[in-house]
Amino acid sequence: MQVAKETDHSPEAVGKYCQQFNKVKWCVENEMGKEEIRIVTGMKTHLIDEYLKIIGEHKAALPP
Q1: CA 37 to CA 45: how far, in whole Å?
Q2: Model-level pTM?
Q3: Through-space distance between the first and last CA atoms of the chain, rounded to whole angstroms
Q4: What one-character DSSP code corresponds to residue 59?
Q5: Is the pLDDT assigned to residue 8 strictly greater than 90?
Q6: Distance (Å, rounded) from C-alpha 43 to C-alpha 34?
Q7: Measured distance CA(46)–CA(40) in Å, rounded
Q8: Most CB contacts within 10 A, which of 33, 41, 57, 59?
Q9: What is the largest CA-CA distance in the chain?
């Protein structure tokens, strides 16, 4: 709820973002390329790029 308030997004939207992030993170951990991630997740390439950027910037802080 706090993240939703701070970002002015609905709790449902924040939950969806977290689920999408975790899907992309799982794909990266399983050494999939962008095209494979797009097929597995059904996400647009530009959205995958955003999640990959976040993963790259915070890789050391992310739980395994």
Answers
A1: 9
A2: 0.84
A3: 24
A4: G
A5: no
A6: 10
A7: 15
A8: 41
A9: 34
